[in-house]
Design goal:
By secondary structure, this protein is mainly alpha-helical. The chain contains 9 helices and 2 strands; from the N terminus they run H-H-H-H-H-H-H-E-H-H-E. It has helices at about 15-20, 30-45, 50-60, 65-70, 75-80, 90-110, 115-120, 140-155, 160-170; strands at about 125-130, 175.
Amino acid sequence: MDKNRCGWCKGDTLYEKYHDQEWGVPVKDDALLFEFLVLETFQAGLSWITILKRRENFRVAFDHFDYKKIAKYPETKILDLLQDEGIIRNKLKVRATVTNAQAYIEIQKEFGSFSDYIWKFVNHKQIKNEVVNYKEAPANTPISDTISKDLKKRGFKFVGSTIIYAFMQATGMVNDHQLDCFRYTEV
């Protein structure tokens, strides 16, 4: 028997696997939170499936999303990334990833972890929305607006409210699975 899933992922096995195993699961690990932040940055203006299909390429190109290494990338590494056909070769996004890694480390110094910092915006617990149809889920919220403004103030790039809301969905800060989706009650 086929499981009922959110409408946005149906029909593509990679999308369905991501939906079934990752999307909306609360993430508290700083390394994985950084990975999602990088992927959401590169997703800006593109479809999420485009990023998912290149995720392993991103992982290799960006040293397994090791933000401590990325924060120290020399110009030669940045130029190499801009030639890497396996990723999205957007100069502003590549440079933003380095800047964001540096700012990420500063947040860790201030708050002990990025997880503690980001989850405080939702009082350290998942917001469970009641989405009937995925097309009705918000693109941003007052909370994502607040997080976006705070991250920008701290020097982050490509962290607009819509990108941050997608990050919140991906990392389980909000549960936007459709009410009839089998994952709604599981995450």
